[in-house]
Design goal:
By secondary structure, the chain is α+β, with helices and mostly antiparallel strands. Helix content is 35%, strand content 22%.
Length: 652
């Protein structure tokens, strides 16, 4: 029999150590471990974990695509918020699995670390490493029904919270092949079981781009939410780059597409530069799994791209003498999608955020070195345009280096002093501290007076800061509005950013609840996304939520966060007879609140409301910042017209 997954954990620490024996050890067998610690398998029990269940089943279908047996996937969100994923692959095997003596279908849905991805010949290339996908979905579902279309009949099996409720049964005849999985997420496990159509659509669109020719259809049948999208991109990642760049001005018309095959591995890269963008945007994938932390395939790409551009610069005499372009110079304005497929992919952790196979670095390096060099020889005008942009970036970066060195020298002369306006906290452990970046000196004064100086630091900002979306790096260093932020956080910027050096593990943007405050937040978030992205990815950035209204009845004061709460609060304060007089004051700004009011409403960890800024979709985030803060006016106008109806808390 296959070994069962066993998790051994210690009971709570309230026992006497002298009495610690085998009775204090708990053994979780089979899928109990998943239900006991779901976060270990799907990351969390919040919305991201809920949607991860769908991704696990879809990934299995796409593994059939990679093997050449599936070209259609259907996802349906039903009216009762259950969900069905159907593919037209070969269908999960239903014959007896030798090790267990039970059907392969039962093994796939009830045994952890079981699947066709461990060298048994099921799949050469697959995203799943651990064989836990289908069984984890089963364990975390109130019920799950799987139907396999195979051998001209329909096989059906049913489960509840991982346990079998119906053995394999033939329920009909069919002339098709494939697998259909329907499940209802368990409300005992998940905070909310409402699927987001937009979240699923975004992920499925990405998968359709990565698997050219695969059609993925997603349908929402819920009342008042009806929607349907069918996505198929014959151009694959070429169309992916075009989609990402649709709000940017291309430096060259055609997307550069390079691919190669070696043994059982393939690598495919699509890239295009933009003339009006100064940041780089790389997306890398291994076996269709996004690797946001990069890995060997990205390392090989970056090294080879830098070398090819420098070699071409010397050969064309555009680079003189000892002139040399850095990697950052060569990637300014680039959008690139890197997709590799390989056997025995080695990811760092179950989150699969970084590819560790060293052979992929060499493979991708050779691909870029050989084929991009050839492309440049055949398309000299494109090569010279890219090189010219890189040379301009190099000059700006040299100016930025000098500005950065001047800042460092100044800090050394001043004894590494922190910004003059910073009111620092007493605690030195960054995991216990937080910094409020506050709009305006008056609000900063109230914040300083109201804070708990043991762990809360205050950094006031004044005026509008630089829009980094329209500025090269040399304009960022030395900017009088940004330098205090960089210095206070202490972790550097750009490729030098090091989250381990952060002086505060909560970076809280506190701005007025009006248009100007929204602008300040957007400018800061643009800066963090472009120059301190790990700050957002690590979950360090928050937005404070100051109240919009102050309700007063006699000596009773109540603060209301937004208009959605106003009517209910008014009704409660007016009393049962509804005749009590309640005065309503709309807050115009943080500076209008005195120190104790700001503490009570916005800074006290016991009573405040904070919103953590999360990066769930890098492609969408890049697009939004480009549209809202970039050079092009028309996309921004269209965006505002589309989303104006959702705007809240605007100036009255």
């Amino acid at each position: 029999m296959a070994e069962k997954e066993i998790i051994v954990e210690e009971i709570e620490f309230d026992i006497d150590i002298d009495e610690y024996d085998a009775s204090h050890i708990q053994v979780l067998e089979g899928l109990e471990a998943v239900r006991k610690r779901p976060g270990m398998y799907i990351g969390s029990t919040s919305a991201s974990g809920l949607h991860h269940l769908v991704y696990e089943i879809v990934d299995n279908a796409i593994d059939e695509t990679l093997a050449g047996f599936c070209d259609e996937v259907f996802i349906t969100i039903h009216k009762d918020n259950t969900i069905t994923i159907t593919d037209n692959g070969r269908g999960i095997p239903i014959d007896i699995q030798e090790q267990t003596g039970t059907s392969a279908l039962e093994v796939v849905f009830t045994v952890l670390h079981a699947g066709g991805k461990f060298g048994g010949g099921g799949y050469k290339v697959a995203g799943g490493l651990h064989g836990v996908g289908a069984s984890v979905v089963n364990a975390l579902s109130e019920w799950l029904v799987v139907r396999v279309y195979k051998n001209s009949v329909i096989y059906e099996m049913k489960f509840s919270r991982g346990d079998i409720t119906q053995e394999i049964t033939i329920v009909g005849k069919t002339d098709k092949t494939g697998t259909e999985v329907t499940f209802k997420p368990d409300t005992d496990i998940f905070d909310d079981v409402n699927f987001s159509y937009d979240t699923l659509k975004t992920r499925m669109r990405e998968q359709a781009f990565l698997n050219g020719g695969l059609r993925i259809t997603i349908k929402d049948e819920r009342e008042n939410q009806e929607a349907e999208s069918s996505m198929c991109y014959e151009g694959g990642i070429i169309e992916f780059v075009q989609y990402i760049n649709r709000t940017k001005t291309p430096l060259h018309d055609n997307v550069i597409h390079l691919s190669d095959e070696r043994n059982d591995s393939t690598a495919e890269i699509a890239l295009q530069y933009s003339s009006d963008v100064y940041n780089e945007f790389l997306l890398s994938f291994a076996n269709n799994i996004n690797t946001p932390d990069g890995g060997m395939h990205e390392t090989g790409f970056k090294a080879a791209l830098t070398r090819v551009l420098n070699d071409y610069g010397k050969k064309s005499n555009m680079l003189k003498g000892d002139d040399k372009l850095s990697g950052e110079d060569c990637r300014e304005g680039i959008t690139a999608v890197i997709s590799v497929r390989l056997m025995d992919a080695q990811f760092e952790g179950q989150t699969k955020s970084k590819l560790g196979n060293s052979e992929m670095r060499t493979f991708v390096d050779h691909l870029i070195s050989d084929k991009l060099s050839t492309y440049f020889e055949e398309n000299p005008s494109v090569a010279r345009a890219i090189l010219d942009k890189a040379i301009t970036a190099s000059r700006a970066r040299e100016a930025a280096r000098k500005a950065r060195d001047n800042i460092r020298k100044k800090n050394m002369l001043e004894g590494m002093s922190l910004p003059g306006k910073l009111a620092d906290c007493n605690e030195v452990d960054p995991t216990l501290t937080e910094i409020y970046i506050v709009e305006g000196d008056s609000a900063g004064g109230s914040a300083k007076g109201g804070r708990d100086s043991r762990f809360q630091a205050i950094l006031p900002l004044w005026g509008k800061m630089l829009n980094v979306e329209k500025a090269r790096v040399d304009k960022v260093y030395g900017n009088e509005k940004l330098t205090p932020v960089i210095t206070a956080l202490g972790a550097g910027i750009g490729e030098e950013f090091d989250a381990t050096k952060l002086r505060y593990h909560k970076v809280i943007i506190m701005a007025d609840a009006d248009v100007d405050g929204s602008h300040i937040r957007t400018l800061l978030l643009t800066f963090f996304f472009r120059f301190m992205r790990p700050l957002i990815e690590g979950g360090y950035v928050y937005a404070a939520q100051p109240p919009l209204f102050k309700l007063t009845r006699g000596k009773t004061i109540r603060w209301i966060l937004d208009e959605a709460e106003l009517d209910t609060a008014l009704e409660e304060m007016r009393g049962e007879d509804g005749k009590g007089r309640v005065d309503i004051t709309r807050n115009k700004g943080l500076g209008e609140m005195d120190a104790h009011e700001l503490w009570d409403t916005t800074m006290n960890p016991e009573t405040r409301t904070l919103k953590r800024i999360e990066l769930t979709d890098a492609v969408q985030a890049d697009e939004v910042f480009t549209v809202l803060m970039g050079e092009k006016v028309e996309p921004r106008k269209e965006y505002i017209e589309k989303y104006a109806k959702y705007a809240v808390n605007l100036d009255m």
